[in-house]
Amino acid sequence: MPEFYLGDDVVLLAADREGIEPFESALADTTKKEKASSHLTASGTSHEFHIGGSEARVELIKGHVIWRLSDEKACEILDRLAGLKASKVPSHHYVDINSPAETLILSVEEYLDAFWLNQD
Question: What CATH class has 11-118?
Answer without folding.
Answer: alpha beta
